[in-house]
Specification:
The chain has three helices and four strands. The protein is α+β, with helices and mostly antiparallel strands. The radius of gyration is 24 Å and the shape is rod-shaped.
């Protein structure tokens, strides 16, 4: 006896519904896998600028924070401190595996950078629509600040 016989319409409805639900669940659980991109090359100030060592609050110091793993990929920032003040924040690594990740990064990273420069700390607000990237940015920034300030 065939499971989809015409004399059993309820069985057909149940099987079709189960197949539809299973298909939707499988589609929603997929995330395309692409190999991670190498970190972008970012210019680093020359050694004559006093980037290493020195006394903690004087001179220029450039520090790269730890890589923060997020749901959508790694986030890592590099900060430049001049006399103990944050003068530059650069995202060294950020999610860029697909066009949507790239769009979110183009939108969120400048806002996160501006807020970090304004607050002079890792106590920055998340960017709406980029919660995971914002969280990773904040964690990497805090790591860089901890390393820079001892």
């Amino acid at each position: 006896m065939h499971p989809l016989k015409k004399d059993r319409p309820l069985r057909r409805i149940v099987l079709a519904s189960a197949a539809t639900v299973s298909g939707v669940v499988l589609l929603l659980s997929l995330k395309p896998h692409t190999p991670p991109e190498p970190a972008l090359a970012v210019p680093v100030p020359s050694a004559s600028a006093g980037t290493a060592g020195g006394s903690g609050a004087t001179g220029t110091k450039t520090v790269t924070g730890d890589t923060a793993q997020t749901r959508w990929g790694p986030v890592q920032v590099r900060i430049t401190l001049v006399n103990g003040r944050i003068t530059d924040v650069t995202a060294v690594r950020h999610p860029a595996d697909n066009p949507r990740d790239q769009e979110i990064s183009r939108y969120a990273l400048p806002r996160l950078r501006a807020e970090a420069l304004q607050t002079q700390s890792a106590g920055i607000d998340s960017v709406s629509g980029a919660t995971y990237t914002s969280d990773g940015y904040r964690r990497s920034l805090q790591s860089a600040l901890d390393s820079a300030r001892g």
